[in-house]
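During the no-cost extension, the postdoctoral fellow (Dr. R.K.) reprocessed legacy sequence entries with the updated structure-token encoder. One reprocessed record is reproduced below for audit purposes.
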Amino acid sequence: MTLRLASLLLPLLAVSAGAQTFVVDEANGPGAHFTDLPAAVLAVPNGAVLLVRPGNYQSPSLGAKTLTLLGEPGANLLPTGLAGGLTISFLGPNQTILVRGFTFSGPIGLGNFTVDCQQCQGAVVLEQLSGPSGILSRLDATSCDRLLVRNCVFRRSSRLRDCNTVLQDCTIAPLGPEGIEALRVTRGTTQVVGGTLQGAAGNLNRGGPAVLSDSAALRVLGTGTLAGGQGLPAGFAVAGTGTVRVDPAVAVSGANPPFAVGVQATVAPQAWVVASDPVLGNPVNVELRGPLGDLGALGVGFPGASHAVPGITDRLFWNGSTAVTQAIGVVQAGAPVAAVVTLPNQQSLLGLQLVWHGVTFAAANGLQVSPPAWYAVRL
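Re-encoded structure tokens follow.
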């Protein structure tokens, strides 16, 4: 099915018309508005898009207004000291911060970079953030209602406390210390779609768990890897306490059994959505995958507050009044429910955020909603 945004174009343009784009360029090249990223963050209006050209930039502190930061290849964020980094805090419920396409930089072997998200009622979206092997980066988040992290790489043990989080196609594999977990989750909900969570090796001790849970609700799906670290014995895939739902397509390894006695684990088919990056003037290919034989519906809408729907365990992350159904069908092996969206080549859509969800149903598997596939339109 192909949808050319006939029904969405007018509201898209209306929403994006007020978003101003500013260019940040360390070299002060043609068309640059700023040479310093923290100064640009302070100066631009609410809702602005910052297009950041290649260069080395001090990491900004973000919060209290909606901003989109789009890094071009070669845009580097420098740590503050040996452990500082990007800070996002105190977002209001109707505010969104999106940061995409930056490399963590610093002295090789010395740099420790932290992406620190604190007390955010609005949405925090982190895309394509990573660093070289000498930069030991980590994610540290507390009390974030909508934290969406996609295609990011972290090389230190990361922390989530009282957050509703989606990790999509991320790698969290700490390089040390020995036997430490990849991800520690305290309460809240965490959905892991694809990617790799790998606990640190324990050498002659127990390896670190992929996830150390403290009364958290986990959902692990897609074709990803959940691996306890090697050691004597190997680490658990999930240690601690709480619940975990795992799709059979997930590669689970480590201790045998892979889940600690305090973890209530369920293995069952799950629904998830895969989408290509939305690029101006290009088609976006979207697929709903999940339980084979289930009836599935695929839709797209604008971001909204996370909310529950009666009869469905997981929450929706879009504004339901803007959602448009794109495709309906039966999920089959090698033939997911799919749609193609062609984005107009209009600069005013740069930075616009779209959310895809899929819903599946069958008597055996019940009614499910996929994690959100949340993307920003880019050049």
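DSSP finds two helices and 34 strands in the chain. Residues 9-16 form the longest helix (8 residues). The remaining legacy entries will be reprocessed before the final report is submitted.
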